[in-house]
Input
Amino acid sequence: MEDPEKQLQTARTLIAQKVGKIDQSSSVYWSAPWGNEDQPAFLNQALQLSTDYNADDLLRHLLSIEQEMGRQRLVKWGSRVIDIDILYYGQEIVSTTHLKIPHPEIANRRFVLSPLNEIAPDFRHPVLNLTTAVLLERCKDELEVKVVSGQ
Output
């Protein structure tokens, strides 16, 4: 959508202000749209955070940031101002109606694995017991993903 790099910067700023310290951030990656391919490409970035919030409270705060930035959930996999996902919460496994950690689609999405691999190649998926680097190597998603700017 409009000025996606600025949207990522705004999200990083709000996350740092409202959620916790950003310990690491990947480069910004351009990726072809996933799911609904009849839309512009996306920009993606992975962040590693330190937070005092538990997983449920973290989700609540991240959803609040999305709303503050103007996110509207109208079309599944559609264009949006911002989409903030919790990929992992340490080695915790969470499965509720509103939150799944680790994110259930990590291993299937190159646009997630590429930036994540930049900041956490040796992190082990707590269910699959594979590192990010191995998940990326085995990923069957063929959509193009490329670095557009470093952090």
Remarks:
- The first helix runs from residue 4 to 18.
